[in-house]
Write a structure and sequence with these properties.
The complex is a heterodimer of chains A (170) and B (437). With 170 residues, chain A is of the alpha+beta class. Chain A has three helices and seven strands, in the order H-H-E-E-H-E-E-E-E-E. Helices cover 31% and strands 22% of the residues of chain B. Chain B is an alpha+beta fold. The relative contact order of chain B is 0.16. Chain B is globular and about 85 Å long. Chain B has 15 helices and 21 strands. In chain B, the strands form five sheets. In chain B, strands 12, 13, 14, 15, 16, 17, 18, 19 and 21 form a nine-stranded antiparallel β-sheet that branches. Classes of the chains: A alpha+beta (170), B alpha+beta (437). At the A-B interface, strand 2 and helix 3 of A face strand 13, helix 8, helix 13 and helix 14 of B.
Chain lengths: 170, 437
Protein backbone atom coordinates (compact mmCIF):
# COMPACT_ATOMS: atom_id res chain seq x y z
CA UNK A 1 0.00 0.00 0.00
CA UNK A 2 1.38 3.38 -0.93
CA UNK A 3 2.26 5.86 1.74
CA UNK A 4 1.10 9.39 2.18
CA UNK A 5 3.15 12.41 3.13
CA UNK A 6 3.84 13.35 6.72
CA UNK A 7 1.55 15.88 8.29
CA UNK A 8 2.72 19.16 6.78
CA UNK A 9 4.16 21.69 9.13
CA UNK A 10 1.73 24.55 9.04
CA UNK A 11 2.16 28.17 9.79
CA UNK A 12 0.85 29.44 13.08
CA UNK A 13 -2.47 29.85 11.32
CA UNK A 14 -3.43 26.92 9.09
CA UNK A 15 -5.22 27.51 5.81
CA UNK A 16 -8.59 25.91 5.11
CA UNK A 17 -6.89 23.55 2.69
CA UNK A 18 -4.45 22.43 5.38
CA UNK A 19 -7.34 21.69 7.72
CA UNK A 20 -9.10 19.71 4.98
CA UNK A 21 -5.96 17.78 4.04
CA UNK A 22 -5.46 16.90 7.70
CA UNK A 23 -8.95 15.45 8.09
CA UNK A 24 -8.62 13.46 4.88
CA UNK A 25 -5.25 12.14 5.99
CA UNK A 26 -6.69 10.95 9.29
CA UNK A 27 -9.23 8.76 7.50
CA UNK A 28 -6.56 7.41 5.19
CA UNK A 29 -4.29 6.39 8.06
CA UNK A 30 -7.18 4.43 9.61
CA UNK A 31 -7.99 2.74 6.29
CA UNK A 32 -4.32 1.80 5.88
CA UNK A 33 -4.23 0.61 9.51
CA UNK A 34 -1.30 2.88 10.33
CA UNK A 35 -2.61 3.28 13.84
CA UNK A 36 0.57 4.53 15.53
CA UNK A 37 0.84 7.41 13.05
CA UNK A 38 -2.89 7.94 13.45
CA UNK A 39 -2.57 8.22 17.22
CA UNK A 40 0.15 10.85 16.74
CA UNK A 41 -2.46 13.10 15.14
CA UNK A 42 -4.18 13.42 18.53
CA UNK A 43 -3.19 15.95 21.20
CA UNK A 44 -2.23 14.43 24.55
CA UNK A 45 -5.48 15.64 26.12
CA UNK A 46 -7.64 14.69 23.13
CA UNK A 47 -10.93 12.82 23.22
CA UNK A 48 -12.58 10.59 20.64
CA UNK A 49 -16.34 10.79 21.16
CA UNK A 50 -19.06 8.69 19.57
CA UNK A 51 -22.39 9.73 21.14
CA UNK A 52 -25.15 7.24 21.85
CA UNK A 53 -27.95 9.80 21.72
CA UNK A 54 -29.14 12.01 18.90
CA UNK A 55 -27.91 15.59 19.53
CA UNK A 56 -26.15 14.45 22.69
CA UNK A 57 -24.55 17.28 24.64
CA UNK A 58 -23.11 15.54 27.72
CA UNK A 59 -20.45 12.82 27.52
CA UNK A 60 -20.24 12.36 31.29
CA UNK A 61 -23.75 11.65 32.63
CA UNK A 62 -25.18 10.37 29.36
CA UNK A 63 -23.75 7.15 27.99
CA UNK A 64 -21.75 7.14 24.75
CA UNK A 65 -20.61 4.41 22.42
CA UNK A 66 -17.10 5.77 22.90
CA UNK A 67 -15.69 8.63 24.93
CA UNK A 68 -12.01 7.85 25.10
CA UNK A 69 -8.91 9.73 26.04
CA UNK A 70 -5.53 9.05 24.48
CA UNK A 71 -4.70 6.35 27.01
CA UNK A 72 -7.78 4.34 26.03
CA UNK A 73 -7.14 4.95 22.33
CA UNK A 74 -3.57 3.73 22.72
CA UNK A 75 -4.87 0.61 24.52
CA UNK A 76 -7.11 -0.09 21.52
CA UNK A 77 -4.17 0.33 19.15
CA UNK A 78 -1.98 -2.00 21.22
CA UNK A 79 -4.80 -4.54 21.47
CA UNK A 80 -5.16 -4.66 17.70
CA UNK A 81 -1.53 -5.83 17.52
CA UNK A 82 -1.95 -8.51 20.20
CA UNK A 83 -1.20 -12.19 19.56
CA UNK A 84 -4.28 -13.24 21.53
CA UNK A 85 -6.74 -10.69 20.20
CA UNK A 86 -9.10 -13.36 18.95
CA UNK A 87 -11.82 -11.02 17.71
CA UNK A 88 -9.21 -9.73 15.26
CA UNK A 89 -8.25 -13.12 13.89
CA UNK A 90 -8.76 -12.57 11.03
CA UNK A 91 -8.45 -8.81 11.15
CA UNK A 92 -11.18 -6.35 10.30
CA UNK A 93 -10.67 -3.93 7.41
CA UNK A 94 -12.32 -0.57 6.92
CA UNK A 95 -12.99 2.04 4.28
CA UNK A 96 -13.95 5.72 4.55
CA UNK A 97 -15.71 7.79 1.92
CA UNK A 98 -15.62 11.43 2.97
CA UNK A 99 -17.43 14.41 1.61
CA UNK A 100 -15.05 17.34 1.34
CA UNK A 101 -14.63 18.61 4.90
CA UNK A 102 -16.15 22.02 5.55
CA UNK A 103 -14.41 24.50 7.81
CA UNK A 104 -17.17 25.51 10.20
CA UNK A 105 -15.17 27.90 12.34
CA UNK A 106 -11.65 29.20 12.69
CA UNK A 107 -10.35 31.26 15.57
CA UNK A 108 -6.58 31.80 15.53
CA UNK A 109 -6.76 33.78 18.79
CA UNK A 110 -7.79 30.63 20.67
CA UNK A 111 -5.99 28.26 18.26
CA UNK A 112 -9.31 26.59 17.57
CA UNK A 113 -10.53 25.24 14.25
CA UNK A 114 -13.63 23.13 13.62
CA UNK A 115 -14.41 21.07 10.53
CA UNK A 116 -17.53 19.12 9.61
CA UNK A 117 -17.34 16.04 7.41
CA UNK A 118 -20.23 13.81 6.33
CA UNK A 119 -18.98 10.29 5.62
CA UNK A 120 -19.80 6.70 4.87
CA UNK A 121 -17.74 4.13 6.70
CA UNK A 122 -17.54 0.44 5.89
CA UNK A 123 -16.16 -2.12 8.29
CA UNK A 124 -15.71 -5.70 7.22
CA UNK A 125 -14.54 -8.98 8.71
CA UNK A 126 -14.87 -12.46 7.25
CA UNK A 127 -18.14 -12.56 5.27
CA UNK A 128 -19.78 -9.64 7.03
CA UNK A 129 -19.64 -6.08 5.72
CA UNK A 130 -21.46 -3.23 7.43
CA UNK A 131 -22.10 0.29 6.20
CA UNK A 132 -22.36 3.19 8.65
CA UNK A 133 -23.19 6.83 7.88
CA UNK A 134 -22.01 9.61 10.12
CA UNK A 135 -21.10 13.25 10.47
CA UNK A 136 -17.67 13.84 11.88
CA UNK A 137 -16.71 17.01 13.70
CA UNK A 138 -13.00 17.66 14.22
CA UNK A 139 -11.84 20.23 16.76
CA UNK A 140 -8.27 21.02 15.77
CA UNK A 141 -5.41 23.18 17.01
CA UNK A 142 -1.77 23.82 16.15
CA UNK A 143 0.89 22.44 18.52
CA UNK A 144 4.58 22.94 17.79
CA UNK A 145 3.88 23.70 14.18
CA UNK A 146 1.62 20.69 13.61
CA UNK A 147 -2.10 20.30 13.56
CA UNK A 148 -3.50 18.07 16.30
CA UNK A 149 -6.95 16.70 17.03
CA UNK A 150 -8.36 18.02 20.29
CA UNK A 151 -11.75 16.37 19.89
CA UNK A 152 -13.14 14.07 17.22
CA UNK A 153 -16.87 13.61 17.43
CA UNK A 154 -18.57 10.93 15.32
CA UNK A 155 -22.36 11.26 15.11
CA UNK A 156 -23.87 8.16 13.55
CA UNK A 157 -27.21 8.70 11.85
CA UNK A 158 -28.46 5.58 13.65
CA UNK A 159 -26.56 6.16 16.91
CA UNK A 160 -29.36 4.55 18.94
CA UNK A 161 -29.65 1.38 16.84
CA UNK A 162 -28.59 -2.06 18.04
CA UNK A 163 -25.17 -2.72 16.52
CA UNK A 164 -22.97 -5.75 16.21
CA UNK A 165 -19.25 -5.34 16.79
CA UNK A 166 -17.67 -2.07 15.70
CA UNK A 167 -13.99 -2.88 16.11
CA UNK A 168 -11.97 -0.20 14.32
CA UNK A 169 -12.19 3.61 14.24
CA UNK A 170 -14.61 5.71 12.20
CA UNK B 1 -38.82 -32.37 11.73
CA UNK B 2 -40.67 -32.03 15.04
CA UNK B 3 -38.84 -33.67 17.90
CA UNK B 4 -39.59 -31.69 21.03
CA UNK B 5 -43.08 -30.14 20.93
CA UNK B 6 -45.32 -31.82 23.48
CA UNK B 7 -42.53 -34.22 24.34
CA UNK B 8 -41.35 -33.34 27.81
CA UNK B 9 -39.23 -36.49 27.93
CA UNK B 10 -37.24 -35.33 24.92
CA UNK B 11 -36.78 -31.90 26.57
CA UNK B 12 -35.59 -33.48 29.82
CA UNK B 13 -33.13 -35.64 27.93
CA UNK B 14 -31.36 -32.50 26.71
CA UNK B 15 -30.10 -31.74 30.20
CA UNK B 16 -27.85 -34.19 31.99
CA UNK B 17 -26.31 -33.68 35.40
CA UNK B 18 -22.97 -32.58 33.95
CA UNK B 19 -23.69 -31.70 30.33
CA UNK B 20 -26.33 -30.20 28.07
CA UNK B 21 -27.18 -31.14 24.51
CA UNK B 22 -26.29 -28.60 21.84
CA UNK B 23 -29.92 -28.41 20.71
CA UNK B 24 -30.62 -26.06 23.62
CA UNK B 25 -28.47 -23.51 21.78
CA UNK B 26 -28.92 -24.23 18.08
CA UNK B 27 -32.32 -25.87 17.58
CA UNK B 28 -35.08 -23.51 16.40
CA UNK B 29 -37.84 -25.79 17.67
CA UNK B 30 -36.35 -25.76 21.16
CA UNK B 31 -36.15 -21.98 20.90
CA UNK B 32 -39.85 -21.76 19.97
CA UNK B 33 -40.71 -23.97 22.94
CA UNK B 34 -38.74 -21.66 25.22
CA UNK B 35 -40.91 -18.81 23.96
CA UNK B 36 -44.12 -20.85 24.38
CA UNK B 37 -43.37 -22.40 27.75
CA UNK B 38 -40.26 -21.35 29.58
CA UNK B 39 -40.57 -17.56 29.31
CA UNK B 40 -44.35 -17.46 29.96
CA UNK B 41 -43.89 -19.75 33.01
CA UNK B 42 -41.20 -17.48 34.48
CA UNK B 43 -41.16 -14.03 36.08
CA UNK B 44 -39.46 -11.95 33.40
CA UNK B 45 -38.08 -8.46 33.92
CA UNK B 46 -40.10 -5.87 32.02
CA UNK B 47 -38.66 -2.52 33.07
CA UNK B 48 -38.17 -0.03 35.88
CA UNK B 49 -41.03 2.12 37.09
CA UNK B 50 -38.87 5.26 36.78
CA UNK B 51 -39.24 4.78 33.01
CA UNK B 52 -42.96 5.52 33.40
CA UNK B 53 -43.14 8.16 36.17
CA UNK B 54 -46.43 9.83 35.15
CA UNK B 55 -49.92 8.56 34.26
CA UNK B 56 -50.03 7.75 30.55
CA UNK B 57 -46.27 7.07 30.34
CA UNK B 58 -45.44 3.87 28.51
CA UNK B 59 -42.39 1.85 27.52
CA UNK B 60 -42.41 -0.95 24.93
CA UNK B 61 -40.35 -4.11 25.37
CA UNK B 62 -40.61 -7.89 25.02
CA UNK B 63 -41.22 -10.90 27.23
CA UNK B 64 -39.35 -13.57 25.31
CA UNK B 65 -40.32 -12.55 21.78
CA UNK B 66 -43.78 -11.20 22.68
CA UNK B 67 -44.22 -7.42 22.46
CA UNK B 68 -45.55 -5.84 25.66
CA UNK B 69 -46.05 -2.37 27.10
CA UNK B 70 -45.19 -1.18 30.56
CA UNK B 71 -47.67 1.61 31.32
CA UNK B 72 -48.58 3.88 34.22
CA UNK B 73 -52.36 3.80 34.55
CA UNK B 74 -54.51 6.83 35.39
CA UNK B 75 -54.72 5.64 39.01
CA UNK B 76 -50.93 5.56 39.36
CA UNK B 77 -50.50 1.77 39.22
CA UNK B 78 -48.15 0.09 36.76
CA UNK B 79 -49.62 -2.35 34.23
CA UNK B 80 -48.15 -4.64 31.59
CA UNK B 81 -50.21 -5.05 28.40
CA UNK B 82 -49.74 -7.10 25.27
CA UNK B 83 -48.80 -4.52 22.67
CA UNK B 84 -51.24 -5.39 19.89
CA UNK B 85 -54.62 -4.07 18.93
CA UNK B 86 -57.33 -6.65 19.72
CA UNK B 87 -58.80 -5.88 16.30
CA UNK B 88 -56.13 -6.64 13.70
CA UNK B 89 -52.98 -7.06 15.73
CA UNK B 90 -51.39 -3.71 14.95
CA UNK B 91 -48.75 -2.57 17.43
CA UNK B 92 -50.43 0.23 19.35
CA UNK B 93 -47.52 2.52 20.20
CA UNK B 94 -45.41 4.40 17.68
CA UNK B 95 -42.39 5.25 19.81
CA UNK B 96 -40.45 2.96 22.15
CA UNK B 97 -41.51 5.18 25.01
CA UNK B 98 -43.63 8.27 25.52
CA UNK B 99 -46.85 9.52 27.02
CA UNK B 100 -50.19 8.49 25.56
CA UNK B 101 -52.37 10.75 27.72
CA UNK B 102 -55.55 9.20 29.14
CA UNK B 103 -55.92 6.51 26.48
CA UNK B 104 -54.20 4.53 23.74
CA UNK B 105 -55.53 4.94 20.21
CA UNK B 106 -54.74 2.40 17.51
CA UNK B 107 -53.39 4.22 14.44
CA UNK B 108 -55.12 1.78 12.03
CA UNK B 109 -58.89 2.01 12.84
CA UNK B 110 -58.90 4.31 15.89
CA UNK B 111 -60.05 1.77 18.44
CA UNK B 112 -59.14 3.29 21.79
CA UNK B 113 -58.24 1.81 25.15
CA UNK B 114 -57.81 3.01 28.70
CA UNK B 115 -54.31 2.78 30.09
CA UNK B 116 -55.23 -0.48 31.87
CA UNK B 117 -55.99 -1.93 28.42
CA UNK B 118 -59.80 -1.98 28.66
CA UNK B 119 -61.75 -0.98 25.57
CA UNK B 120 -62.83 2.67 25.57
CA UNK B 121 -64.43 3.25 22.15
CA UNK B 122 -64.72 1.97 18.58
CA UNK B 123 -65.73 4.28 15.71
CA UNK B 124 -69.02 3.39 14.01
CA UNK B 125 -69.77 0.97 16.78
CA UNK B 126 -73.28 0.19 15.56
CA UNK B 127 -71.62 -2.05 12.97
CA UNK B 128 -71.01 -4.52 15.80
CA UNK B 129 -74.61 -4.56 17.05
CA UNK B 130 -76.18 -8.01 17.06
CA UNK B 131 -72.90 -9.63 16.04
CA UNK B 132 -72.14 -11.10 19.46
CA UNK B 133 -69.13 -8.76 19.68
CA UNK B 134 -69.53 -8.43 23.46
CA UNK B 135 -68.51 -12.08 23.79
CA UNK B 136 -65.38 -11.71 21.63
CA UNK B 137 -61.88 -11.44 23.00
CA UNK B 138 -61.57 -8.17 21.08
CA UNK B 139 -64.26 -6.56 23.24
CA UNK B 140 -62.03 -7.01 26.27
CA UNK B 141 -59.46 -4.60 24.84
CA UNK B 142 -55.70 -4.92 24.96
CA UNK B 143 -54.90 -8.15 26.78
CA UNK B 144 -53.21 -7.44 30.11
CA UNK B 145 -50.42 -9.61 31.46
CA UNK B 146 -52.19 -10.77 34.58
CA UNK B 147 -49.29 -11.42 36.88
CA UNK B 148 -47.30 -8.25 37.46
CA UNK B 149 -45.12 -7.39 40.42
CA UNK B 150 -43.34 -4.12 41.08
CA UNK B 151 -40.44 -4.94 43.41
CA UNK B 152 -39.05 -1.66 44.76
CA UNK B 153 -39.28 -0.16 41.26
CA UNK B 154 -38.28 -3.25 39.25
CA UNK B 155 -41.29 -4.58 37.36
CA UNK B 156 -41.58 -8.28 36.56
CA UNK B 157 -44.37 -10.10 34.77
CA UNK B 158 -45.43 -13.70 34.30
CA UNK B 159 -47.64 -14.42 31.30
CA UNK B 160 -48.99 -17.85 32.30
CA UNK B 161 -51.31 -18.45 35.23
CA UNK B 162 -49.33 -21.52 36.25
CA UNK B 163 -45.85 -21.53 37.68
CA UNK B 164 -44.66 -20.10 40.96
CA UNK B 165 -45.71 -16.95 42.74
CA UNK B 166 -43.23 -14.09 42.81
CA UNK B 167 -41.77 -14.73 46.27
CA UNK B 168 -41.38 -18.43 45.66
CA UNK B 169 -39.78 -17.85 42.26
CA UNK B 170 -37.13 -15.41 43.51
CA UNK B 171 -36.76 -16.32 47.19
CA UNK B 172 -33.62 -15.00 48.82
CA UNK B 173 -32.16 -13.81 45.52
CA UNK B 174 -34.02 -10.52 45.95
CA UNK B 175 -31.32 -9.51 48.45
CA UNK B 176 -29.16 -8.52 45.46
CA UNK B 177 -31.83 -6.07 44.29
CA UNK B 178 -32.18 -4.84 47.86
CA UNK B 179 -28.46 -4.16 48.09
CA UNK B 180 -28.38 -2.29 44.77
CA UNK B 181 -31.36 -0.14 45.79
CA UNK B 182 -30.15 0.44 49.36
CA UNK B 183 -27.00 2.03 47.94
CA UNK B 184 -29.13 5.11 47.37
CA UNK B 185 -29.32 7.17 50.57
CA UNK B 186 -33.08 7.40 50.01
CA UNK B 187 -33.46 3.79 48.83
CA UNK B 188 -34.51 4.66 45.31
CA UNK B 189 -33.07 4.14 41.82
CA UNK B 190 -33.78 5.90 38.57
CA UNK B 191 -33.00 4.70 35.05
CA UNK B 192 -30.37 7.10 33.74
CA UNK B 193 -27.76 7.59 31.05
CA UNK B 194 -29.33 5.73 28.14
CA UNK B 195 -29.38 2.07 27.13
CA UNK B 196 -26.65 0.31 25.18
CA UNK B 197 -28.05 -2.14 22.62
CA UNK B 198 -25.68 -4.78 21.29
CA UNK B 199 -26.73 -7.44 18.78
CA UNK B 200 -25.23 -10.91 19.29
CA UNK B 201 -25.31 -13.73 16.75
CA UNK B 202 -25.58 -16.42 19.38
CA UNK B 203 -28.06 -18.06 21.71
CA UNK B 204 -29.24 -15.96 24.67
CA UNK B 205 -28.24 -18.62 27.21
CA UNK B 206 -24.56 -18.29 26.30
CA UNK B 207 -24.71 -14.78 27.73
CA UNK B 208 -26.52 -15.89 30.86
CA UNK B 209 -23.97 -18.63 31.51
CA UNK B 210 -21.09 -16.27 30.91
CA UNK B 211 -22.16 -14.08 33.85
CA UNK B 212 -21.01 -16.73 36.29
CA UNK B 213 -18.15 -18.05 34.14
CA UNK B 214 -15.10 -17.00 36.12
CA UNK B 215 -12.56 -19.07 34.23
CA UNK B 216 -12.79 -16.98 31.06
CA UNK B 217 -11.77 -13.40 31.99
CA UNK B 218 -8.03 -13.97 32.25
CA UNK B 219 -8.08 -15.93 28.98
CA UNK B 220 -10.67 -14.36 26.66
CA UNK B 221 -9.99 -10.85 27.99
CA UNK B 222 -6.22 -11.06 27.92
CA UNK B 223 -6.40 -8.98 24.76
CA UNK B 224 -8.31 -6.11 26.38
CA UNK B 225 -7.71 -6.22 30.13
CA UNK B 226 -4.20 -7.64 29.65
CA UNK B 227 -3.33 -4.78 27.32
CA UNK B 228 -4.68 -2.27 29.85
CA UNK B 229 -2.41 -3.75 32.51
CA UNK B 230 0.60 -3.67 30.15
CA UNK B 231 0.00 -0.11 28.93
CA UNK B 232 -0.61 1.12 32.46
CA UNK B 233 2.75 -0.34 33.60
CA UNK B 234 4.44 2.24 31.37
CA UNK B 235 2.79 5.20 33.11
CA UNK B 236 5.25 7.37 35.05
CA UNK B 237 5.50 6.30 38.73
CA UNK B 238 3.07 8.17 40.95
CA UNK B 239 0.49 8.76 38.21
CA UNK B 240 -3.00 8.54 39.66
CA UNK B 241 -4.75 5.41 38.43
CA UNK B 242 -7.56 6.50 36.08
CA UNK B 243 -11.12 5.26 36.61
CA UNK B 244 -10.93 3.34 33.33
CA UNK B 245 -7.92 1.31 34.52
CA UNK B 246 -9.64 0.65 37.87
CA UNK B 247 -12.57 -0.75 35.91
CA UNK B 248 -10.86 -2.97 33.31
CA UNK B 249 -7.63 -4.16 34.94
CA UNK B 250 -9.32 -6.46 37.54
CA UNK B 251 -10.57 -8.65 34.69
CA UNK B 252 -6.98 -9.96 34.58
CA UNK B 253 -7.08 -11.17 38.19
CA UNK B 254 -5.64 -14.69 38.58
CA UNK B 255 -7.64 -17.91 39.02
CA UNK B 256 -7.08 -17.79 42.76
CA UNK B 257 -8.91 -14.45 42.99
CA UNK B 258 -11.96 -15.92 41.27
CA UNK B 259 -11.83 -19.21 43.20
CA UNK B 260 -11.87 -17.31 46.47
CA UNK B 261 -14.54 -14.79 45.46
CA UNK B 262 -17.16 -17.52 45.84
CA UNK B 263 -20.46 -18.23 44.13
CA UNK B 264 -23.85 -18.43 45.79
CA UNK B 265 -26.63 -20.69 44.51
CA UNK B 266 -30.33 -20.02 45.00
CA UNK B 267 -33.42 -21.86 43.81
CA UNK B 268 -34.85 -21.61 40.29
CA UNK B 269 -31.60 -20.83 38.49
CA UNK B 270 -30.72 -17.65 40.36
CA UNK B 271 -27.30 -17.08 41.86
CA UNK B 272 -24.42 -14.66 42.16
CA UNK B 273 -20.67 -14.49 41.97
CA UNK B 274 -18.66 -12.44 44.43
CA UNK B 275 -19.68 -13.79 47.84
CA UNK B 276 -16.53 -12.47 49.54
CA UNK B 277 -15.09 -9.91 47.11
CA UNK B 278 -15.26 -9.10 43.42
CA UNK B 279 -13.73 -7.09 40.61
CA UNK B 280 -15.73 -4.14 42.00
CA UNK B 281 -14.17 -4.28 45.50
CA UNK B 282 -11.30 -1.87 45.05
CA UNK B 283 -12.83 1.15 43.36
CA UNK B 284 -11.77 4.53 44.75
CA UNK B 285 -14.14 6.13 47.25
CA UNK B 286 -16.43 8.80 45.84
CA UNK B 287 -16.15 12.02 47.88
CA UNK B 288 -19.21 12.78 49.99
CA UNK B 289 -20.98 9.49 49.35
CA UNK B 290 -20.18 7.58 52.52
CA UNK B 291 -21.16 10.64 54.59
CA UNK B 292 -24.58 10.69 52.90
CA UNK B 293 -25.02 6.97 53.45
CA UNK B 294 -24.04 7.26 57.11
CA UNK B 295 -26.47 10.12 57.63
CA UNK B 296 -29.24 8.06 56.04
CA UNK B 297 -28.61 4.63 57.55
CA UNK B 298 -26.16 5.04 60.44
CA UNK B 299 -22.54 3.98 60.13
CA UNK B 300 -22.93 0.24 60.76
CA UNK B 301 -25.73 -0.24 58.28
CA UNK B 302 -24.00 1.99 55.69
CA UNK B 303 -20.84 -0.10 56.01
CA UNK B 304 -22.84 -3.31 55.68
CA UNK B 305 -24.56 -2.09 52.50
CA UNK B 306 -21.36 -0.86 50.87
CA UNK B 307 -19.40 -3.88 52.11
CA UNK B 308 -21.36 -6.18 49.80
CA UNK B 309 -19.41 -6.59 46.59
CA UNK B 310 -21.55 -9.05 44.70
CA UNK B 311 -20.16 -9.32 41.22
CA UNK B 312 -22.89 -10.62 38.88
CA UNK B 313 -26.30 -11.70 40.13
CA UNK B 314 -28.14 -13.80 37.57
CA UNK B 315 -31.93 -13.80 37.72
CA UNK B 316 -33.30 -16.65 35.69
CA UNK B 317 -34.21 -16.54 32.90
CA UNK B 318 -32.62 -13.54 31.23
CA UNK B 319 -31.20 -10.71 33.32
CA UNK B 320 -28.16 -10.01 35.43
CA UNK B 321 -27.49 -7.12 37.77
CA UNK B 322 -24.35 -5.58 39.21
CA UNK B 323 -25.33 -4.06 42.55
CA UNK B 324 -22.06 -2.23 43.28
CA UNK B 325 -22.29 -0.29 40.01
CA UNK B 326 -26.07 -0.18 39.48
CA UNK B 327 -26.23 -1.94 36.16
CA UNK B 328 -28.76 -4.37 34.69
CA UNK B 329 -28.30 -6.37 31.51
CA UNK B 330 -31.13 -8.12 29.75
CA UNK B 331 -30.53 -10.87 27.20
CA UNK B 332 -33.48 -10.62 24.84
CA UNK B 333 -34.00 -13.71 22.73
CA UNK B 334 -34.74 -13.13 19.03
CA UNK B 335 -33.90 -16.51 17.49
CA UNK B 336 -31.90 -19.58 18.49
CA UNK B 337 -28.84 -17.83 17.08
CA UNK B 338 -29.71 -14.19 17.73
CA UNK B 339 -29.89 -12.17 20.95
CA UNK B 340 -30.27 -8.49 21.67
CA UNK B 341 -28.29 -7.49 24.74
CA UNK B 342 -29.54 -4.35 26.48
CA UNK B 343 -27.39 -2.79 29.20
CA UNK B 344 -29.29 -0.42 31.48
CA UNK B 345 -27.81 1.90 34.08
CA UNK B 346 -29.31 3.45 37.20
CA UNK B 347 -28.71 6.59 39.17
CA UNK B 348 -28.69 6.29 42.95
CA UNK B 349 -31.18 8.98 43.90
CA UNK B 350 -29.55 11.59 46.18
CA UNK B 351 -26.00 10.24 45.71
CA UNK B 352 -23.07 12.12 44.10
CA UNK B 353 -23.05 12.27 40.28
CA UNK B 354 -19.63 10.66 40.14
CA UNK B 355 -21.24 7.29 40.87
CA UNK B 356 -23.36 7.55 37.74
CA UNK B 357 -20.33 8.74 35.81
CA UNK B 358 -18.45 5.59 36.85
CA UNK B 359 -21.44 3.38 36.07
CA UNK B 360 -21.68 4.85 32.58
CA UNK B 361 -17.95 4.49 32.01
CA UNK B 362 -18.18 0.85 33.04
CA UNK B 363 -21.10 0.31 30.70
CA UNK B 364 -19.41 1.77 27.64
CA UNK B 365 -16.02 0.17 28.35
CA UNK B 366 -17.48 -3.30 28.97
CA UNK B 367 -20.94 -3.58 27.38
CA UNK B 368 -21.01 -1.38 24.26
CA UNK B 369 -20.85 -2.71 20.69
CA UNK B 370 -17.68 -0.60 20.52
CA UNK B 371 -16.24 -2.20 23.68
CA UNK B 372 -13.03 -4.20 23.40
CA UNK B 373 -14.19 -6.39 26.29
CA UNK B 374 -17.48 -6.97 24.48
CA UNK B 375 -15.58 -7.91 21.32
CA UNK B 376 -13.63 -10.55 23.24
CA UNK B 377 -16.82 -12.16 24.55
CA UNK B 378 -18.90 -12.02 21.40
CA UNK B 379 -16.11 -13.67 19.42
CA UNK B 380 -16.28 -16.65 21.79
CA UNK B 381 -20.10 -16.89 21.70
CA UNK B 382 -20.18 -16.77 17.91
CA UNK B 383 -17.46 -19.38 17.61
CA UNK B 384 -19.47 -21.62 19.96
CA UNK B 385 -22.66 -21.05 17.99
CA UNK B 386 -20.76 -22.19 14.90
CA UNK B 387 -18.82 -25.03 16.52
CA UNK B 388 -21.94 -26.59 18.01
CA UNK B 389 -23.08 -27.61 14.54
CA UNK B 390 -20.42 -30.29 14.60
CA UNK B 391 -21.83 -33.78 15.01
CA UNK B 392 -18.55 -35.05 16.42
CA UNK B 393 -19.72 -34.22 19.93
CA UNK B 394 -23.27 -33.07 20.61
CA UNK B 395 -22.72 -32.16 24.27
CA UNK B 396 -21.54 -29.08 26.13
CA UNK B 397 -19.60 -29.96 29.25
CA UNK B 398 -20.57 -28.26 32.54
CA UNK B 399 -18.70 -30.55 34.91
CA UNK B 400 -16.30 -28.26 36.79
CA UNK B 401 -16.54 -28.93 40.55
CA UNK B 402 -19.62 -31.12 40.12
CA UNK B 403 -20.97 -32.86 43.16
CA UNK B 404 -23.71 -35.53 42.93
CA UNK B 405 -25.61 -34.12 45.93
CA UNK B 406 -26.01 -30.58 44.61
CA UNK B 407 -29.43 -30.86 42.91
CA UNK B 408 -31.59 -30.24 45.98
CA UNK B 409 -29.40 -27.63 47.66
CA UNK B 410 -30.10 -23.93 47.84
CA UNK B 411 -28.50 -20.83 49.34
CA UNK B 412 -25.07 -22.40 49.46
CA UNK B 413 -21.77 -20.66 48.80
CA UNK B 414 -19.19 -22.60 46.82
CA UNK B 415 -15.84 -22.23 45.06
CA UNK B 416 -15.99 -19.24 42.72
CA UNK B 417 -14.94 -21.23 39.66
CA UNK B 418 -17.67 -23.84 39.97
CA UNK B 419 -19.98 -24.45 37.02
CA UNK B 420 -22.73 -25.25 39.52
CA UNK B 421 -24.62 -22.02 38.59
CA UNK B 422 -24.80 -23.16 34.96
CA UNK B 423 -25.99 -26.64 35.92
CA UNK B 424 -28.48 -24.94 38.20
CA UNK B 425 -29.71 -22.68 35.40
CA UNK B 426 -30.36 -25.74 33.27
CA UNK B 427 -32.22 -27.52 36.08
CA UNK B 428 -34.48 -24.46 36.20
CA UNK B 429 -34.66 -24.42 32.41
CA UNK B 430 -35.99 -28.00 32.36
CA UNK B 431 -38.46 -27.21 35.14
CA UNK B 432 -39.98 -24.16 33.46
CA UNK B 433 -39.82 -25.65 29.96
CA UNK B 434 -41.79 -28.75 30.89
CA UNK B 435 -44.14 -27.17 33.43
CA UNK B 436 -47.62 -27.67 31.98
CA UNK B 437 -46.24 -29.31 28.83
Amino acid sequence: MSTVAEVPVVNTVPTDQELIDFVVREARLIDQQRFDEWLDMYADDAFYWMPLEWNQTDPRLTCSLMYEDKLLLSIRVERLKGARTFSQKPKSRCHHVLQTPQVDSRDPSTNSYVTWTPMHYVETRLDEQTLYAAWVTHHLGVENGRLKIKLKRVDLINCDAAFGNIQLFM
Amino acid sequence: MIRYAGNSEAIRALVREQAVHRDVYVNEEVFQLEMEHMFPNSWVYVGHDSQVPNPGDYYGTTIGTQPVLLVRHTDGTVHVLHNRCPHKGTRITSETCGNTGKFFRCPYHAWSFKTDGSLLAIPLKKGYENTGFEQSQAARGMTPVRHVRNYRGFVFAKINDGGLDFEEFFGESLTSFDNMIDRSPVGRLKVAGGVLRYMHNCNWKMLVENQTDTCHPMVAHESSAGTVVEVWKKAPPGTKKPMAVEIIAPFMSPYEFFENMGIRIWDNGHGHTGVHHSIHSDYSAVPGYFEKMTAAYGEDRAKAILGENRHNTVYFPNIMIKGPIQLLRQFKPIAANKTLVESWTFQLVDAPDMLLERTLMYNRLINAPTSIVGHDDLEMYERAQEGLHSNGNEWVNLQRLYSPDEAGQTNVAVNGTSEWPMRHQFRAWTKFMTMGM
